[in-house]
Amino acid sequence: MQRRDLLKTLAVLPLPAAAQYAARTRGLPPLTIRDVKVITTGAGSNYQWVFVKITTSEPGLYGLGSASNVNHAFSVATAIEKHYGPFWTGKPADRIEDLWQITNVRGYWRNSAIHNNALSALDVALWDIKGKRAGMPVYELLGGKTRDAVALYAHADGRDMQQVEENVRKYMEEGYRHIRAQMGGYGGGGMIPPGQGSRPASGFSGPAFDEELYMEVIPKLFEHLRVKVGTQVKLTHDVHEHLTPTGAVDFAKRMEPYRLFFLEDPLPPEQIAWFRQIRQVTTTPLAMGELFTSPLEWVPLISERLIDFVRNRLSQTGGITAARKTAALCEAFGVRTAFQEGGDNDPINQLASYHVDLSIPSFGIQEENHFPPLVHEMMPGTAQLKGGYLYGNDAPGLGIDINEAMAAKYPMKQPPGADNWTTVRGVDGSMVKP
Ligand code: MG
Asked: Is 287 exposed, middle or buried (0-12, 13-18, 19+ CB in 10 A)?
């Protein structure tokens, strides 16, 4: 090739990324956080969603993050308005890691739920901004896709074994390969009906949890399911911490014949040291994490290989930055992720998890969560569920926006029962972990 032709070829090649970035930002002042706006909404239902919209010094460039916490929504909103927002305003929007670190220690005490909600919202919004600035979806910034879509597990429930079986089949027909099976919600199968059982006079008369009953009934449900629907479908079950530690050890062993994909939250966070005992007696795979707020909880479980899946919720544990570090730790120790996405969760948190899920080799599964049409209209870009998979779009950033006028039409209200759903009791009226 002639030198002249070579120069011509070079002239039409795209600029290297650093030069492109420099060209795009030449003459502009460094990107700073201009304003932190808290957006709350009930989204036409009983949702308790708290979002942050971080606007920057670049006109039109903003990011969205989730600080949702169904049990403390108003506290979180106030914390961001009064404490975190003013702290972040004026700081460089490009320095995600640095801002994460200084925010984490800003209040001196760390690893609390409300603090982590604020930290997560900041983090996710800054990744959204960085993606938009780069013109790439966030998963590209995290290393690109390691899979084509994000597999989900669905929630099948029912009042009896036949109804649970029907619902499992329904999800299998939709394409789900992973299905959680419960029978009457959390603790279901172990509930003594209201007024029944041997109860103290004038005491608690509601549905009462009984450990023995639960440990007898639930293995029978899974025996039924394996006989009827076969071994191909991957089943999970959520204990939701109802058991005593020894009960959890026994129950995990009793469930072994039904080859679960995982047994979720067999223990409350206060008793995680008992995972060692469960590991010694059974190969039932274990999942834990939706109640975690601190690395002091999940790091030992992962590094000692005491669980198989970590179930952290991104908006409770520090957002994308924390999730990718946790995923890297999982990768080193052969643990997988199963990020939490319960029904109170929101589309921004769901997409934040999605971008991490798509890019990590330690991905295991993500929890299913679907939204009514109104939410898809209010938050364009909300991820789509199809055939047991979650699909985002390839728009730069997270790929989601919010119609603020529409969100304002549905003010966030305290839903009835929001403060007492976690209260479970036994026949004598004593509390059981929720
Ligand atoms: Mg759970």
From this structure: buried
| CB contact burial 176-211 (16+ within 10 A = b; e otherwise) | bbbbbbbbbebbbbbbbeeeeeebeeeebeebbbbb
- From ligand 1's centre to the CA of 360, what distance in Å? 22
- Give pLDDT, residue 16: 67
Cα of 432 vs centre of ligand 1, distance in Å, is 16
Is 390's pLDDT higher than 70?
A: yes
**Has 391 been annotated as catalytic?**
no
- The closest of 101, 103, 88, 94 to 130, measured between CA atoms, is 94
Find the 182 Cα to ligand 1 centroid distance in Å.
Answer: 11
Phi, psi torsion values for 369, nearest 5 degrees: -155, 125
pLDDT of residue 434: 87
* Domains of the chain with bracketed CATH: 11-135 (3.30.390.10), 141-398+419-432 (3.20.20.120)
Of residues 283 and 19, the one with the higher pLDDT is 283
- pLDDT for 296: 96
Per-residue pLDDT for 18 more than 90?
no
Cα separation, 366 vs 389, in Å, equals 9
- All residues with CB under 5 Å from ion ligand 1: 238
Is position 240 annotated as part of the catalytic site? yes
Report the alpha-carbon distance of residue 238 to residue 175 in Å, rounded. Answer: 21
Bridge partners, 262 (sequence order): 236
Annotated catalytic residue within 62, 153, 186, 389: 186
- Beta-carbon contacts of 253 under 8 Å, excluding residues fewer than 6 positions away, are 281, 282, 284
Catalytic residue among 155, 240, 242, 355: 240
Instruction: Give 378 Cα–ligand 1 centroid separation in angstroms.
Output: 27
Provide the pLDDT for residue 422.
85
pLDDT tens digits, residue range 210-247?
999 999 999 999 999 999 999 999 999 999 999 999 99
Gap between the Cα atoms of 313 and 340, Å rounded: 5
